[in-house]
Design brief:
The protein has about 325 residues and is an alpha+beta fold. It contains 7 helices and 12 strands. It is globular.
Length: about 325
């Protein structure tokens, strides 16, 4: 007969249960502040560094105390607002701008003229060839016109000479030229109100105007194009551009006429050595390319806009990463 009694001595295996981890709310990342140093005023005629603070009698005087022995309450210190923080924005954006892995000679596009100008001004051998430059504001416009008889304002981003405005200080106030049309105003305030709408909300920069050498009264400048082929940079073009009659811009798309660099230098500055000036432009280009590539890796082609003033000095007006 089958025994149906339960064996109380049998060992029943324990059932294990996997513990569900307790829910933890995600912790928001703590933002890390980015320290931004205020940009200098990029003017080769002035020092780049801010001079160290000088001890004054007021600073060395003993601190006054109240009867209870504690210093009297001081007004809350308000940190000064850097005047040119906006200038660094363009440099920072340019440095963070990703560059495509395109065909050889294409490379990274860098549209900010201010970012490239700031880098070039950091080199002691290149800076003397950059006209004094500032970002546009009414105050900066007044300062620049007080220091220079002529300035040119242009978009921080733009090509083809579009948006350029030439401004001159005249006896009765100021004149400004857009394309071939010139108008006059009597004050800086009136000038600012006249040119501000023409900027169409775009950031602008102010550059000292250079009285260029001319051919038959028309200003001429030079475009030097250089392209990276493998690990070497090669010169592809060095040409002159003569402005159309009545215009101060030389861009071919604005009616400018192309000539060889030798023709341009020889006809505009007959007493200057053509070979020496062309070599000087090549040397400046090579030095600038090395500097720009260090700061903006990935660039594959560059177009330098040069000008020679009436004395023969070479000036770099801007550098393009998509030269035409």
């Amino acid at each position: 007969m089958e025994d149906n009694r339960i064996d109380t001595t049998a060992v029943v295996p324990a059932t294990t249960m996997e513990m569900v981890p307790a829910y933890e709310a995600p912790v928001a990342p703590v933002p890390v502040p980015i320290a931004v140093e205020p940009a200098p005023i990029y003017d080769p005629a002035t020092a780049f560094a801010v001079p160290e603070a000088v001890a004054t009698p007021e600073a060395l005087a003993p601190v006054a105390v109240t009867p209870n022995g504690f210093p009297p309450p001081q007004p809350e210190a308000v940190p000064p607002i850097p005047e040119f923080d906006e200038e660094m924005v363009h440099v920072q954006r340019a440095l963070m701008n990703p560059f495509p892995k395109g065909a050889a000679g294409t490379g990274r596009m860098l549209s900010s003229k201010w970012a490239k100008t700031a880098v070039l001004l950091s080199h002691p051998s290149i800076a003397p060839h950059i006209p004094p430059t500032r970002l546009y504001s009414e105050a900066n416009l007044k300062t620049m016109l007080d220091q220079h008889s002529m300035v040119v304002i242009k978009p921080v981003r733009g090509t083809g000479g579009i948006g350029l405005i030439k401004i001159s200080r005249v006896d009765s106030g100021y004149s400004y030229t857009v394309s071939s049309s010139t108008r006059r105003v009597s004050s800086i305030g009136a000038l600012h109100h006249a040119v501000k709408p023409l900027q169409k909300g775009r950031p602008y920069m102010i550059q000292k105007g250079i009285h260029l050498a001319t051919i038959a009264g028309r200003p001429i400048d030079y475009r030097v194009k250089i392209v990276k082929n493998g690990d070497k940079w090669e010169f592809r073009a060095m040409v002159g551009r003569v402005a159309r009659a009545g215009l101060f811009v030389t861009n071919l798309c604005r009616g400018g006429r192309q000539v060889t660099s030798a023709q341009g230098i020889g006809r505009s500055l007959p007493n200057v050595s053509v070979a020496a000036k062309k070599q000087e432009m090549r040397n400046l280009t090579n030095l600038s390319v090395s500097l720009l590539e260090t700061h903006f890796p990935g660039i594959g082609q560059l177009g330098f806009d040069y000008g020679l003033d009436k004395s023969g000095k070479i000036w770099i007006f801007e550098v393009n990463t998509r030269p035409k």
